[in-house]
Every structure is written in structure tokens, then in C-alpha cells.
Amino acid sequence: MIGPIISSGIVSPAWDNIFAVLLGMGFGFALESSGFSSSRKIIGTFFGYDFVVVKVFFTAAIVASMGLLYLSYFGLVDYSLLYIQPTFLTSAIVGGIIMGIGFSMGGFCPGTSLCAAAVGRIDGLVFFGGMFIGVFLFSESFSLFENMFYSGSQGAKMINEAFGISPELFTFFLVLAAVGMFFGAAWVQKKVKKVEY
Amino acid sequence: MERKYTILAVLMIVLALGLVVLPKKKEMKEADPKTLLSAITEKSRFLSVDLVTHRIIENDPTLLLIDLRPADQFKAFALPGSINIQPDSLLSVTTLELLNQPGKDKILYANSDLTAEKAWLLATRYSVDRLYILKGGLNEWYNTIIKPGEISTAASSTELDLISFRNAARQHFTGAGQTTNEPVAKKAPEKVKVVRKPPEAASGGGC
Predict the structure, then answer these.
(1) How far is A64 from B16, CA to CA, in rounded Å?
(2) Domain total in chain A
(3) Which of A46, A103, A110, B166 shows a CA-CA span of 20 to 30 A to B105?
């Protein structure tokens, strides 16, 4: 059996939404068990007293990256069938800035706000409601942003191609950067005054 | 940092290093659609039966004949030096490795062009180079080389050379009887001269 299992026809596309629900439940469980339903824990990244967000997401990224490359090497995953989100540089930068401002102001990102809302936290519920208002306003005013949204298109580009190195070498450097950052974050956390929450 | 996280960090680095150090597997790259279209429209992929036959007789070491017919047909008869590959195993790892042998001209053939064309298209898409098709397939080869053709007295010298070559090739493959090098022209029927005996002189009589 060679993955991806839906693209390669092993499993019917009708299972798409079922897998999405199961993976979403697993993701929510991982977030909640990491304490991401607390906005104070999440915002600790910006104030230097708790870097759990960076550690968890960076660990997930490097584990997923290495896992895919090893599975591809052993012929269990067809790397060429994986979907790659197209890069729209301008809208990615603008969206990233807006996302960062919202994250630091609200203490949640979309996924963690759902996590907090699910455990009944009021700030999570408010953030979740605000997110939908934002989505609604964006979709209604999309014609104003359409040109900017689709500008800077670079196709389905991989970051290792931009650097001219193999995915394996890029992943190795990424792991080194992640481990270095974990040690750095631990050092900063020791220096910053602890916050009780 | 806690000891367990240090151990996990070292483990991650070792695994990432493994990715870099592991030997690379050769991946078959698919041909660009424009390259493929250009290859399809060009007719140089077809090789004439005369050219292929010449190379077979010369024992050309760069020639690799690939018979795409069923195994029983291959066993019954095949061009000398050919190997049998079933079309459904054309894209297997072993077959692709064989097709990607450097320094060989791979010539595909079946009874006609159809199967060979399909196989050529699939293999070319996998960037297999130096891949050709025997024009007309085995049927054309048989009708041209093995089956003696009619010779016209008005044939040009080039055509006569070709006919000579085909005759020699027929002899090479079948060991059939010798044939003259020159074409036998049709002789006009000879006119028979009737010679009438002169009447015998009458005898004088007596016995």
C-alpha cells in the first residue's frame, strides 16, 4: 500500500471527510493536552515566559517532514502525489502580518480558539465568533483584495528548491535550527520573570 | 533543559542526519509534455526493416531488440538476439532499468506497429532515450526479407542493391537455396526454324 491512500485510489474519496474529522479530533486532543486552550500560555511566546507553542509546532513540523521523507524513501508514500499549497508571496506576507497581530492581541490562533471554545472558555468563544465575522467581512469585500490576494504567484514551490538544496538537506538544517531554538527558548525562559496562570 | 528533552533532541538530529547520509534512489523522471509532443511528431523513431536487418546480420553490439508479443509467439519465432517483454510489465523497475541501459539502441517490435507505438509512448514518457520502433513490425519484416518479392527489369541500381541485400538476408535467416545476383529477365520465345529436308533423289532401281 502506497500513500497518499486517497490520491492513489486505495481508499475511496468518500472517506475524505471522515479522515478530516478523525484528524481534527486528534489535532484538538494534542492541542488541549499541550495546554493550548489557555490564551495566557499561548501568548507566553510573545512575552518570553512560555515557549510551548513554538516547541510543539516546530516539533510537529520536523517530525512530519522527516516522517514523510523516510516513508518516501522506503516507497510507502509517493512524494510526487502530495498536494503542495501554491505560493502567493504578497498575500502570504500580508496575511501573516494580520495573523500575527490578531494572535498577539487575542492570544489564540484559529485552531487553538476552537480548542478553547470546545472546553467552554469565554475568551475562546469570543475569538471564535470574531474569526467568523472576519471571514464573513473578507468574503464580502474580496473583490477589493482580489488582485493583491492572487499577486506574487510562484506556483507550488518548495522552500528547498528556492535554496537549491535537496529536501533531505533542508530538513537536516531545519532540525538543527529547531533544536537550537529549543535550547535558546529554554535559556530565555530562565531569564524572564515567571507568570502565574 | 531537561535530560529527556536533550535525548530527544539528539535523536532528532541523528534521524535528520540519516536522511542526508542514506544513499539516493534513482528516480525515473517523467518527460516534459512539450518534449513528449516533439518526440511524437518526429518520425525518426521508426527504423526500416532493412536497417534493422543489416544491424542484426552485422551483430551490432549496440542493438537491443525487444519483442512485445505474447511468450508463446516469441517462442515460436523471434528476431535473433531479441528479448521478450510483456507490455503489462513495461513500467516495472526491472524493465525500466533494462530500457535505461546506456549505450544501447532499444528497438521495439510486435506483429504490427500498434503495440510497439504504445510501448514507445509509455517508455518515452519515463524519459527512456534511444528507443525506436521497427516500422511495420514483424509482419513487414517477414514480407520484406523472408518472402521473395517480384523483380522488375526496370529496377534502378539502388533498388537492385536493396534486392540483393534482401536476398542475402533471406539466405542468412532461412538458409534457403542460392539465388543469382542478377535478375533473370524474361526471355522472348525462340522462333523455331523449320528445316525441310531436300527430297531424296530417286533410286536407279534394283536392290
Answers:
(1) 12
(2) 1
(3) B166
d(C-alpha B169, C-alpha B162), whole Å: 10
Residue A18: exposed, middle, or buried by beta-carbon count in 10 A (0-12, 13-18, 19+)?
exposed
ipTM exceeds 0.85: no
Residues of chain A found within 8 Å of residue B13, distances taken between Cβ atoms = 175-176, 179
Residue A12 lies in a domain: no
Name chain A contacts of B16, Cβ cutoff 8 Å.
62, 66, 171-172, 174-176
Specify the 3-state DSSP secondary structure of A158. coil
What number of H helices and E strands is found in chain B?
Answer: 8, 5
Task: Output the pLDDT for position A66.
Answer: 94
Task: Output the nine-digit C-alpha cell for A19.
Answer: 479522515
Is the predicted pLDDT of residue B27 greater than 70, yes or no?
Answer: no
Domain assignment present for A5 = no
> Is A155 a domain residue?
yes
Average pLDDT over residues A175-183: 92
**What is the grid cell recorded at A108?**
489564540
Chain B positions touching chain A (beta carbons under 8 Å): 1, 5, 9, 12-13, 15-20, 22, 25
For residue B192, with 0-12 CB atoms within 10 Å meaning exposed, 13-18 middle and 19 or more buried, which class applies?
A: exposed
Percentage of chain B beyond pLDDT 90 is: 29
Quote the pTM value. Answer: 0.55
The length of chain B in residues reads 207
pLDDT tens digits along A55-71: 888 999 999 999 999 99
Half-sphere exposure of B135 (CA within 13 A, CB side): 12
User: Are the beta carbons of B16 and A182 separated by less than 8 Å?
Assistant: no
Sign of the Cα torsion A84, A87, A88, A93 reads: positive
Q: How many residues does chain A have?
A: 197
Rounded to 10 degrees, the C-alpha dihedral B89/B91/B95/B99 comes to 140
B13–A66 C-beta distance less than 8 A: no
Q: Residue B12: which of A69, A169, A175 has the nearest Cβ? A: A175
Segments forming the whole domain that contains residue A44: 19-191
Q: Does domain B33-174 have CATH number 1.10.357.10?
A: no
Torsion of CA B135, B140, B144, B149, to 10 degrees: -140
Q: B207 falls in which pLDDT band (50, 70, 90)?
A: very low
CA-based nearest distance A78→chain B, Å: 11
| A95 in any annotated domain | yes
d(CA A183, CA A174): 14
